Amino acid sequence: MGGKIIGGLAIAAMTTGVFAGNGSNAQTLDNTWITRVRMRLANSWTAALPQRRSRSQMQAYSLKLVNRDRKNYRRSRLMADPLLTQVAQRHAEDMATRNFFGHVNPWGQTPSDRIKAAGGSGGVAENLAYQMSGSGIHPSYPLAETFQDGWMRSAGHRANLLNPTYHRFGYGIATSRDGTKVFAVQLFR
């Protein structure tokens, strides 16, 4: 995606379904909602950074936030899925390392392509977010809450989060080498 949002939050959602075609052919249907949301950060973000959290802490907390929101809308709980988490983490790290933000990576791989490359099959829904800060940023619970709030305020992202047919969830988060960006990925199926 072009452009950058400084001091704000960028988010994007994609749902990909794979439908069988004739013979060995398959057709892929992509419904893409890309939304950029600017959010004002609380003064505490610039005064003192919140406590740094480990990847596993962030994954568990993100699932807790997702299930909280699903409960509020009377949806069933999602379960953590190791393959979805692995693919989400790799994509977050790829975006942080190669400094891009998008559902399709510079090699042209879609979320479904990345699932297939990791040994899975079928379509997935994906939510993306990143946060930038000129003074440094790292994974923290307040950042996870900011991402979740942004996704829930966007119709496309909320549709992924609350889809009643989804039962599994994966989450990845990574910080850029210079420490100025954090990228987050949610995967659903």
From TrEMBL:
Residues 63-188 form the SCP domain. It comes from the Bacteria. Residues 1-20 form the signal peptide. The keyword Acetylation does not apply. Keywords: Signal. Gene3D superfamilies: CAP. InterPro entries: CAP_dom, CAP_sf. The keyword NAD does not apply. This is CAP domain-containing protein. It comes from Lyngbya confervoides BDU141951.
